[in-house]
Amino acid sequence: MSFISSHFRLDTLSQYSFVYLTAVDFISQYPMFAEALLKQLRPTEIGVIPQHPLDRCLDTFFLNTAEHFIAVLNTQVADDLVANAASPYLGSNAESNTFEAFEAAHSVMLAIMAVPHNVALAASRIEEYAEKLFERPLLPSSLLETIRFRVESASTQPLANKSNTDEVHAQPMSEKAALVLALIQSLPCLELEALEAWLPVAARLCYVVQDPDLRQLCRNRLWEVISNGTMDVDRAAFCANWWNTRSGRELALYGEEKPVPGRLINDSMDELSRL
Reduced to 3 states, what is the DSSP secondary structure of residue 186? Predict the structure, then answer.
């Protein structure tokens, strides 16, 4: 049934869809039954992509089914049973014939990290997950384009500080500035071709931040990322070239490729000292 539904789409088989979703809804009311069902459906060998197409089809069915129960599973089961089963399909070594399992794995991982009681699990998995995402050639630019698009409409109001610490001197952060900082922070993970495209975008986005202090914070962070050893040798060399010969300095300091005549001489020393 999994093979049939995956090839003819679940929504085209109304009777099967009704029975399947009704069963999921019923089992979701009993977390112990949901855990027992997933243990019966789990891959024979967790952590590897099986060679046989039927086994990969069963893995896809398991991941799609597990996604429905993530909210009622305890954190340990979600990690040991589901996240570990999804892990081999997340990386760039996923072949074209595992694309459906690849999509299911990413969907279930996002579901795991979105559940409030899995916050500790999300914190432990997010770095590995992000690294695997950025290994895929086109995905980094797609994600950054999503961030760039969101920056345009993001709020400039200070975000609520939910920290339990007494950091009274912490910089109030807006949604817009946080998104720009997230984009800047991702630059060391990009391939050179993508880095060439996104460096000037990151520099310009600093000037979309209206608050002067937050704008300076973004500019400082951009300078740190391209100059403090975060980049590897090839990326660092490219950033140095971009800064010195490809209008990178002007973009970072003024938000424009060609500074207003006379301003560079008068302001550059002050701006560089602030960076």
Answer: coil
Q: Where are the alpha helices (DSSP H) in the chain?
A: 2-8, 14-28, 31-41, 53-69, 75-77, 84-90, 99-114, 119-134, 139-153, 175-185, 192-205, 212-227, 233-245, 248-254, 263-274
CA distances from 191 to 31, 141, 235 (A): 43, 10, 8
Strand partners, 63: none
At residue 97, the 3 state secondary structure works out as: helix
| C-alpha–C-alpha distance, residues 261 and 259, integer Å | 6
Instruction: Scan for tokens 């599973």, then name that residue.
Output: 73
153-202 pLDDT, tens digit each: 888 888 876 555 444 446 788 999 999 999 999 999 888 999 999 999 99
Helical axes 53-69 vs 14-28, angle rounded to 10°:
50
Radius of gyration over every alpha carbon of the chain, rounded to an integer in angstroms = 24
Cα 253 to Cα 204, 219, 264, distances in angstroms? 10, 8, 9
Report d(CA 155, CA 165) in Å as an integer: 25
Contacts of 153 (CB under 8 A, 6+ apart): none
Helix (H/G/I), strand (E/B), else coil: 94: coil
Residue among 101, 3, 115 nearest 56 (CA)? 101
What is the number of residues in the chain? 275
Least confident range of 3-7, 36-40, 94-98, 213-217? 3-7
For residue 117, the 8-state DSSP code is G
